[in-house]
């Protein structure tokens, strides 16, 4: 299932991410795509809030993986600079099969390592404050979440 949500402010984007974050379970994988400045890290901050993470969440661009502790561990990854074999050497698959939630920026670089069930999120910058958030439920796990978001009047276009 696919769904597109228009966010008209950073707060609204944060609320959408928090809503999704409250629905996450151990082993869930979310991919985040979008140009620089689209709001990928901001979106991840909303997920972190839902997971009750107290630490400051920032971009893992140079560290590749940042781990945060909350009601579920959050593994925030930026794999832009990795080739698939490098990702395997780093043990990315262990995170994907682990006890927490993985949020992966630029996940197309490691697409062959991704699980069948995942939520692909693409954020497009429409203006200074407006964002188009496209959700694609791959596999069955996230179909229900997309349907709930579609029904939720706070997020309908």
TrEMBL record:
<keyword id="KW-0547">Nucleotide-binding</keyword>
<keyword id="KW-0460">Magnesium</keyword>
<dbReference type="GO" id="GO:0046872">
    <property type="term" value="F:metal ion binding"/>
</dbReference>
<dbReference type="GO" id="GO:0002949">
    <property type="term" value="P:tRNA threonylcarbamoyladenosine modification"/>
</dbReference>
<keyword id="KW-0819">tRNA processing</keyword>
<comment type="similarity">
    <text>Belongs to the TsaE family.</text>
</comment>
<dbReference type="InterPro" id="IPR027417">
    <property type="entry name" value="P-loop_NTPase"/>
</dbReference>
<keyword id="KW-0479">Metal-binding</keyword>
<dbReference type="GO" id="GO:0005524">
    <property type="term" value="F:ATP binding"/>
</dbReference>
<dbReference type="GO" id="GO:0005737">
    <property type="term" value="C:cytoplasm"/>
</dbReference>
<dbReference type="InterPro" id="IPR003442">
    <property type="entry name" value="T6A_TsaE"/>
</dbReference>
<protein>
    <recommendedName>
        <fullName>tRNA threonylcarbamoyladenosine biosynthesis protein TsaE</fullName>
    </recommendedName>
</protein>
<dbReference type="Pfam" id="PF02367">
    <property type="entry name" value="TsaE"/>
</dbReference>
<keyword id="KW-0067">ATP-binding</keyword>
<keyword id="KW-0963">Cytoplasm</keyword>
């Amino acid at each position: 299932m696919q769904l597109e949500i228009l966010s008209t402010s950073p707060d609204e984007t944060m609320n959408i991410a928090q809503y999704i974050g409250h629905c996450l379970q151990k082993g869930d994988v979310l991919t985040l795509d979008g140009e620089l400045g689209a709001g990928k890290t901001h979106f991840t901050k909303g997920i972190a809030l839902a997971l009750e993470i107290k630490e400051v969440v920032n971009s893992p661009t140079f560290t590749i993986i940042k781990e945060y502790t909350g009601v579920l561990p959050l593994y925030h990854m930026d794999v832009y600079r990795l080739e698939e074999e490098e990702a395997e050497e780093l043990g990315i698959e262990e995170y994907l099969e682990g006890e927490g939630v993985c949020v992966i920026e630029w996940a197309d670089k490691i697409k062959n390592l991704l699980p069948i069930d995942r939520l692909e999120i693409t954020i497009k910058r429409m203006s200074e404050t407006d964002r188009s958030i496209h959700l694609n439920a791959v596999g069955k796990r996230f179909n229900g979440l997309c349907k709930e978001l579609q029904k939720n009047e706070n997020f309908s276009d």
